[in-house]
Amino acid sequence: MNDTICAISTALGVGAISIIRLSGQDAITIVNKIFKSKDLTRAASHTINYGYIEYEKQTIDEVLVTIMKAPKTYTKEDIVEINCHGSIATVNKILEILLTLGCRLAEGGEFTKRAFLNGRIDLVQAEAVSDLIASTTEASRNLSLNSIKGNLSKIIKELRQEILEVLANIAVNIDYPEYEDAEEITIDLLKTKNEHILKKLKEILNTAKDGKIIKDGINVALIGKPNVGKSSILNRLLDENKAIVTNVAGTTRDIVEGSITIKGIKFNFIDTAGIRQTTDEIEKIGVDKSKEISKIADLVICVLNGQEKLSDEDKEILSITKNTPRIIFVNKNDKPLKIDKVTSAIYGNTLTEEGIKPLKEQMIKEFNLNKINTQDFTYVSNARQIALLKKCQQKLENISKQIEKQTPVDMLEIDLKQAYDLLGEITGETYKDELIDELFKNFCLGK
Questions:
Q1: Domains, the chain, ranges and CATH?
Q2: Rounded alpha-carbon distances, angstroms, from residue 362 to 142, 294, 329, 358, 365
Q3: For residue range 131-157, what is the model confidence (pLDDT) as tens digits?
């Protein structure tokens, strides 16, 4: 934390500008050595300075240098950002010079890591920064931004504070029984307080599914035997010819993917190879992939051909997906149907946008998209955070069970402390160095 780090903060490639970022106590001094237009050590904080980068009597580039002095910066350290021309050669040359002059190349996410370690943001906000960079829809952007603002952290911290107050009163009751101002924590009172905290925790977890949908979208697998119209459905949903469509069975042999946004939520569609018995080795691999994807998708659309009777292959597909969230879509209803009646099926076709409309409406209904409150974006969507909340829930539920057995209050204090620590791990108020290193290494280099 005492050294000065630097990294390219913009995507590598040819562009109008690129940004090289430095953070650390020597950031301004190091850049000042190669910025010959003015003395940056005398420049006011949060100013942009025009000039040239020069090194060993050679002009490297015409630049704008932004000076931001601690503590009012992203990392709470001195930060310098060099805006140079977006030539790969120019960017790499400036970076090379900075490393020569004493900077260290930043690790993945190290700027955000320093912001966390220096107390500017907590761990929920840090993870939200990465999510914001990766966001692909307006809803996921708002979700991440809401967490960056600290709204989710506030809820977690309030919950943790409630547990702390109970722990404090238990400690006073045990160590100073004569202290009359402290609230006496009896089994009945602990039960009331524990149930109140547990209720709040469950409310947070109940929204986690919606949060994950907003953040990651919904993975949808199109499953069916060959020539039932899976690729046509994909093309109609995406409004583009993404998948090859022919009358030849087994045309789709590998995975074809595409995404659309419905009601602000991203749907990731996967068109799979038709499931059937085949001697073709390549097609067989595709069939096996189809079966595997059907097991892990958030939603399976089982496509049946309305112009044929149910085959053994259709029945197998319906069987292997019966325990998976699914929609049974009978395709090709533009002509009189020949298929047997299928329970809970919806009907449509790919000839027009209207023909695919029933399928879209069912997808919206399946995930209650009309009920997801996209105005309040205070959701837990991070897998690490959800896992910790569930562990915390287990501790509080265990307390409830022990209360029924009339277990002494001081013995229940152990689970309560563990619940308190688990909530602290979410925000980073309690953490292990190994966890922090693991979390931030997946960030992009300049962030």
A1: 5-117 (3.30.1360.120), 138-207+379-428 (1.20.120.430), 217-366 (3.40.50.300)
A2: 26, 18, 10, 6, 5
A3: 888 888 888 888 888 888 888 899 999
